[in-house]
Write a structure and sequence with these properties.
alpha+beta; Alpha-Beta Plaits; Alpha-lytic protease prodomain-like; 5-stranded mixed sheet
């Protein structure tokens, strides 16, 4: 904007930071160590340990392939449904591993955030795939309720028990990796859902085996499909919020703006935006108006301290101006239609 932050200038030593025009500072400590014990991981980062993800992936893929074969031999839709669910888990882990490699690429050129949102794209694709597969399994499950095939109960029961063990091991491996990633956390939750689904499939296999009730397999498949809908919708919803630049669910922009204007010498906050670059990396920008005699730098530093300590926001861009320096002409042109609510002290 070019407005001068012309507060009265005290006598400064050479080491003091000079006051500036229209104090607009971008605050982000890339070491993520702010000296107050605050630490924050950003999505799928290069420091994520890919070894644990790779071990979980190998377990899932090996068992998934065996499960498809057994499911076809046993004519068990429940096993095939479980295998399809595990396929999306494997896809999440593969995409998380790719995102780890992409996160090592520095931001440059037109990609000013680098490739950090690659994981959000993949998470959304994973969620949509889950919903489409669930729709097909619901159709097939209902069909098998009406026309139940002969299901090999013992094969279903034993395979489901092995699946429970495999999922417990895979979940433990993923818990050792960086779960702030939407993909990694999604895969972790899917594997937990798989474990519950395998418990249901084991029960269904036992019912088919001991009671001779083949429809139990279709019922178990419908339960798994419901879990897939729940997990798929959660991924689509969360990735959609990020693409629509919505504020993180745990941060209320109005509460943040109201808190900032309670600080000394802050007169107004507008154009306040809170969004997520990628999972685990919230950001904030705002235009702050301060009293005429306020030190823009000191006010900005205090706001940054509050945002970090109270809201966990370390990636902030703040423009700080004096109220009186927005003359009548500039006021008509500047922020004539501010985005969102205007907060005044």
């Amino acid at each position: 904007m070019g407005d001068q932050c012309g507060s009265p200038r005290p006598t400064n030593t050479a080491a003091e930071e000079p006051e500036c025009a229209g104090d607009r500072r971008h605050s982000h400590d890339h070491s993520h160590d702010h000296g107050n014990g605050h630490h924050h991981d950003h999505g799928v980062s290069a420091d994520s340990d890919p070894r644990w993800l790779s071990i979980a992936l190998a377990l899932i893929v090996a068992f998934m392939a065996a499960e498809v074969v057994v499911g076809l031999l046993a004519q068990s839709l429940a096993l095939i449904t479980d295998a399809a669910h595990m396929l999306t888990d494997a896809a999440s882990i593969v995409l998380a591993l790719i995102a780890i490699r992409l996160s090592k690429r520095p931001a440059r050129g037109q990609y000013t955030y680098g490739y950090k949102r690659a994981e959000i794209l993949s998470a959304q694709a994973n969620g949509i795939t889950l919903l489409l597969l669930a729709a097909w399994f619901v159709y097939e499950g209902v069909n098998r309720l009406i026309h139940p095939p002969d299901v090999e109960g013992p094969l279903v029961f034993v395979t489901a028990l092995i699946g429970i063990v495999v999922n417990i091991i895979a979940a433990w491996c993923i818990s050792r990796a960086n779960r702030t990633s939407l993909n990694v956390e999604g895969a972790f939750q899917h594997i937990l859902n798989d474990m519950y689904a395998f418990i249901g499939t084991a029960i269904a296999g036992a019912v088919v085996w001991l009671a001779g009730y083949p429809r139990a397999d279709a019922i178990a498949a419908l339960v798994v499909a419901a879990l897939m809908v729940k997990a798929g919708w959660a991924l689509v919803r969360e990735s959609g919020r990020i693409f629509l630049e919505a504020a993180p669910a745990h941060l209320d922009p109005d509460a943040i703006g109201a808190r900032i204007v309670t600080l000394p010498q802050v007169s107004e906050v507008h154009d306040l935006h809170v969004w997520v670059i990628t999972s685990g990396e919230p950001s904030l920008s705002a235009h702050i108006l301060v009293d005429d005699r306020a030190d823009c730098h000191a006010v900005r530093l205090e706001i940054e301290r509050v945002l970090l300590a109270e809201f966990g926001l370390e990636h902030t861009t703040l423009q700080v101006d004096h109220v009186s320096e927005l003359d009548s002409v500039a006021a008509d042109l500047h922020c004539a239609e501010p985005h969102g609510r205007v907060h005044r002290s």
